[in-house]
Amino acid sequence: MGNRFKIFIWTLFDFANTSFSVLILTTAYSVYFREIVTGNSQIGDFLWGLAFSISMFIVAFISPFLGAIADYGSNKKTFLLIFTLLCIVSTGLMFFVERGDVLLGMILLILANIGFEGGLVFYDAFLPEITSERSYGRVSGYGFAMGYVGSFISLLVAFPFLKGEFTPENMFNVRFTFVVASLFFLVFSLPFFLIIKEKKNPSQEKVSYFKIGLERVKSTFKNATRYKNIGNFLLSYFIYADGINTVIIFASIFARHTLNFSLTEILTFFLTVQSTAILGSVVFGVIADSIGQKKTLSITLLMWVITAIGAYFCVDKTSFYIIGFIAGSAMGSSQSTSRSLMSKIVPFEKKTEFFGFYSFFGKSSAILGPLVFGFVSSLTGSQRIAVISVALFFIAGLILLQRVREEKFQG
Predict the structure, then answer these.
(1) DSSP labels for 109-166?
(2) What rounded mean pLDDT belongs to the chain?
(3) Could you point out which of 120, 173, 300, 341 has its C-alpha 20 to 30 Å from the C-alpha of 96?
(4) Where is the Major facilitator superfamily (MFS) profile domain (predicted)?
């Protein structure tokens, strides 16, 4: 199998799974939950943030164990399949969530997001197996670019179902969008499972995977001083990823309730933003391989600071489009560059375990941000006050990133 073909199939999974993130977390289900399921209650922002944070707490708890277990038993693909199916099934069942079904709506979001985020632990760990170190930035950028192409296409597919407003006549179409997200993820993730092979490292003895995973996690913490540079990066990532996750899950809700966007305008906005996300992923991937991941990531974090502060001062839809273009460029590039920088500085033989920690820090950080945004918004009744706090996450993450050395760990 050619290397380019393997890379393409790997990126196709990014193409598939972003249907969940863009239709469920970012646009259709987030607004539907806030406006219909919770009855447009002021506490709606808090409940949405709470459900997302609970899912992230669970993922954060299990990620290091999953990473260590998969690395020991060479079962990344099996675990990825299990979590992918959890996301797909839970997303499809959201079709049955109607007005007042707050608990059901929250439970399905929690389960679906556990499947989505938990699977990324194993998906990310395939990067060092399909390409060389010198191409981490470029290939990671291709993956995120394909993801945003997937977002763009899934939004186009869902567009006819989301025209108009939340009228009784249109409610079936809106809920069918959740089924569209589920089927899109299912169909386009299949090539990965059918074609990609993982490098095997079979054990010669039968052991408890949980016990081995626990021991390896303990060992990593015990020897934390040996991995100080990785720890510095993960601390920075812990903080700025919080801001990114918060922006993703509240962007449509902010546009809807603060700037009075209609459903059609929200979809049009995100369709437009995807173009800058695709371009940003590719361009900054190439830049990362030229000037280094750290410098590239610093640039994108500065863009995120501008995005958060700019959103606070937005007074009309035109200015929000400008902010959206900046955010789109920063989103794909910051995520892909983070992934490639992590691949570059970790020891190869412990890659999956450390990607477990990478996921742990990214997901555990997302526990706080959505809760803070939802709490401040529900308490004050102002999403503008809530959004300004997001800038602090990006500023702190940028400062801490400067302590990271961009070099491979030498044991």
Answers:
(1) HHHHHHHHHHHHHHHHTTHHHHS-GGGHHHHHHHHHHHHHHHHHHHHHHHGGGG-S-S
(2) 85
(3) 120
(4) 7-408
pLDDT category of residue 100 using cuts at 50, 70 and 90 = very high
Closest CA to 114 of 25, 178, 217: 25
Looking at residue 224, what is its pLDDT?
60
φ, ψ at 338 (rounded to 5°): -60, -45
162 pLDDT band, cuts 50/70/90, is confident
CA dist., res. 30 & res. 148, Å (int): 19
* Euclidean distance between CA atoms 269 and 317, whole angstroms: 9
Q: Are 21 and 116 in contact (CB under 8 A)?
A: yes
Q: Name 370's Cβ contacts closer than 8 Å, sequence gap at least 6.
A: 48, 49, 50, 52, 53, 56, 245, 246, 249, 250
**Spatial CA neighbour of 90 closest among 181, 200, 194, 224:** 181
State how far the Cα of 152 lies from the Cα of 144, in Å rounded to an integer.
12
Q: Do the Cβ atoms of 236 and 35 come closer than 8 Å?
A: no
Contact, 31 vs 256, CB < 8 A? yes
Q: Look at residues 255, 220, 232, 261 and name the one whose alpha carbon lies nearest to residue 347.
A: 220
> Is 223 exposed, middle or buried, given 0-12, 13-18 or 19+ CB atoms closer than 10 A?
exposed
| Domain at 3-186+225-401: CATH code | 1.20.1250.20
pLDDT, greater one: 275 or 38:
38
Are 271 and 155 contacting, i.e. CB atoms less than 8 angstroms apart? yes
In tens, the pLDDT along 222-237 reads: 666 677 888 889 889 9
Half-sphere exposure of 152 (CA within 13 A, CB side): 15
Helix 44-73 and helix 209-222: axis angle, to 10°?
A: 100
